[in-house]
Each structure stands twice: as structure tokens, then as C-alpha cells.
């Protein structure tokens, strides 16, 4: 099975992480390490300049706390809040941390995904490790 598993999560009420966490537990070796990652998209400079620094810091802290709570679902999981474009950031994190399996939830693609692609699509096509997509 897998020894170093990455589980990217979206932190909103519409996304249920339980299926991804269940798959991670099933695919994990007995001494597997879990990384739970949330990617925070960068705020455009013209908008960020209008947001007070304490608001940005407080928001990031709240997101990290919510991510830490999510990570408790997996034994010994470490939570990482990273920034960037979701698909690219997930692949980069996997490459930099010797991940051997990414377990990624996906939505049903819509018309806009034909031109832009989805996070899952980018990860599946660019990851150097196994990718399990949960629907």
C-alpha cells in the first residue's frame, strides 16, 4: 500500500472530506504518513491592498485552525495551508514531499471545465505519483 499520502481538502460546508479520509485509511500502509493540505488561492494585488493586514492574518489563522481540525480525522496527520493555484500547488507539494499517493475529491465537470480544466484534471495529468479521485 502507500506510505506517504496527500489528501487535499476544500474547507467549505459543500465539500465532505469523509470519503477522501476513508479512502486514505483504506489505502494506507500500517506506518503511513498523512498530509492534509488546503490551497489558498492568492488574492489579486489590487484587492489585497484594500484589506487590512490584521484581517488577512486573522483569516489565515482561522483557515489554519479549521484545517487542523479536519486533519484530526486521520491518525497523526499533519495539516498544511499552502498558497497558489490549486492544481499546480498540489502537484508541487507532492513532488517536494515525496508523496506516493494523492487522494483527491472531485466534482462533476461542467461546461466551464472544458476550457479551464479542473483541479483534479490537472493533478491527474501532472502528478508523478498515484492519484485516486473520489467522486
From TrEMBL:
Domain of life the protein comes from: Bacteria
Residue ranges occupied by any UspA domain in the UniProt entry: 1-135
Pfam families, alphabetized: Usp
Protein family according to the UniProt entry: Belongs to the universal stress protein A family.
Protein name: Universal stress protein
UniProt organism field: Ruegeria profundi
Lineage of source species: Bacteria, Pseudomonadati, Pseudomonadota, Alphaproteobacteria, Rhodobacterales
